[in-house]
């Protein structure tokens, strides 16, 4: 009988140790996050790291907003992300009165290319050239993270849509 009581006591003690360890783990994570300056910007939670740079809540670095990233003038505003072959991203805030994404980006000299039978074949974005005929890579156009079913020159600007170009093989 004494052995059963001893086993129950050890089980109880082990459970208590595990509960304390879990509490410390959870408390430690919350404590670290509370030490970081948090803010909400444009509906996206961000925080400042020790260097004063903004980071997204999931830990990915946000690109600091500078005047170089805000281009154009006009009543229509949309975001454009450009990802080069190494995956480095640059985010732009585009202001325009143009009707299509392509017209806005060509006007701002952010994209260039050649006219083909299917519309504008974009070869250069933000000064980076990707030419399938010479490099085996090309600029892919995305809308809200989905491969676009229309060309950039025929895509109407829609408020709230997220547009992006990525170099792909």
Describe this structure in words.
- By secondary structure, the protein is α+β, with helices and mostly antiparallel strands.
- It has three domains: 1-35; 37-62, no CATH class; 67-168, Ferric Hydroxamate Uptake Protein, Chain A, domain 1, CATH 2.170.130.
- Helix content is 27%, strand content 37%.
- The chain has a six-stranded mixed beta sheet with strand order 4-6-5-12-10-11, with helices on one face.
- β7 (111-116) and β8 form a beta hairpin.
- The longest helix has 34 residues, at 2-35.
Brief description of this entry?
The protein has 169 residues and is of the alpha+beta class.
Order of helices and strands: HEEEEEEHEEEHEEE
Query: What is the CATH first-level class name of the largest domain?
Result: Mainly Beta
- The overall average pLDDT, rounded, is 78
Distance between the termini: 72 Å
Radius of gyration: 25 Å
Largest sheet: 6 strands, mixed
Low-confidence regions:
29-65
Give the strand tally.
Answer: 12
Provide the CATH architecture of the largest domain: Beta Complex
Shape: elongated
How many helices?
Answer: 3
Give me the CATH fold name of the largest domain.
Ferric Hydroxamate Uptake Protein, Chain A, domain 1
Q: Roughly what percent helix?
A: 25-40%
User: Which structural class best describes the helix and strand composition?
Assistant: alpha+beta
Count of the separate structural domains:
3
> In what order do the strands lie side by side in the largest sheet?
4-6-5-12-10-11
Give the percentage of residues in beta strands. 35-45%
